[in-house]
Design goal:
The chain is of the alpha+beta class. Helix content is about 40%, strand content about 20%. Bound molecules: adenosine-3',5'-cyclic-monophosphate.
């Protein structure tokens, strides 16, 4: 089943020149880029994006981090894209991520974990709509 998911290359990935490496990994897994741009979120925008995590101990810190520098936000399309992209990313905590995953290879910290991906179809709809309008996403 063809699906779309929202992916972010986080400020640590952009500042460490990992954009190309991460995109290659996505495309090699048959995840097609159907929208992409570079943005720098304000603290308020980062809080809006991560609102499901409001109240958690890492909320202030992760929203500071996500608004600290540019991110690349993109929409990926493919069969079972949400689950397959999450497998490609690996666990949030890179020390627990499988060998060969993006986070295992590149992350340095549970917070500075290089990439984000939607965790369900409902989340993907919200997250894609948070960053992209209809004209910016390929039909
Ligand atoms: P992400 O998948 O984007 O979702 C929430 C983010 O919060 C997570 O990746 C990490 O960057 C950050 N984070 C920091 N600490 C934690 C934690 N203990 N559990 C989950 N996420 C955390």
């Amino acid at each position: 089943m063809k699906q779309r998911t929202l992916a972010i290359i986080k400020p640590d990935g952009v500042s460490r020149n990992l954009v190309g490496a991460v995109l290659s990994r996505m495309e090699a897994e048959e995840l097609r880029v159907v929208a992409m741009k570079m943005i720098k979120m304000t603290k308020e925008q980062a809080k809006g994006f991560y609102r499901v995590h409001e109240g958690k101990p890492f909320f202030e810190s992760v929203t500071d981090f996500m608004s600290s520098g540019p991110c690349v936000v993109l929409v990926l399309e493919g069969d079972d894209a949400i689950r397959r992209y999450r497998t490609l990313m690996g666990a949030t905590d890179y020390t627990k991520a499988e060998e060969g995953t993006i986070r295992r290879e590149f992350a340095t910290d549970i917070e500075k974990n290089v990439v984000h991906g939607s965790d369900s179809e409902e989340t993907a709809r919200f997250e894609i709509g948070y960053f992209f309008n209809a004209l910016e996403v390929m039909a």
